[in-house]
Amino acid sequence: MVRKGFDIAIKKLGVYGVSVRIIPPDVELPDEFKVKEVSKEELEALKAQILGEASAEQVETEAEQSKEGEEQ
User: Fold this and answer.
1) Spatial CA neighbour of 18 closest among 30, 31, 10, 9
2) For a Cys-Cys bond, which of 8, 12, 24, 55 suits 51, CB 3.0-4.6 Å?
3) Nearest-angstrom CA–CA distance, 53 and 56
């Protein structure tokens, strides 16, 4: 992923060492991420898995009740 290089230059006043690391522009770094789009059906399936079927229905019922309360 990272290209490395090292070279030494000997001068009258001393020795210089140069170390270089180059990251090509097309490399995907591990701290980068992509957000996946999720459809409503997939979201509902995930809710059902996490909360259980009864709990998912309770959440939907409570959401509908709160919407009705806001409309009044």
Assistant:
1) 9
2) 55
3) 5
What are the tokens at 71? 């409309």
Q: What is residue 38's DSSP assignment?
A: -
Q: How confident is the model at residue 72 (pLDDT cuts 50, 70, 90)?
A: low
Find tokens 């409503």 and name the residue. 40
User: What are the residue ranges spanned by the domains of the chain?
Assistant: 36-72
* 52 CA to centre of own chain: 26
Token pair for 8: 């030494």
Beta-bridge mates of residue 20: 5
Tell me the per-residue pLDDT of 7-58, one tens digit each, with 9 for 90 and over: 999 999 999 999 999 989 888 777 767 788 888 888 888 887 887 765 556 6
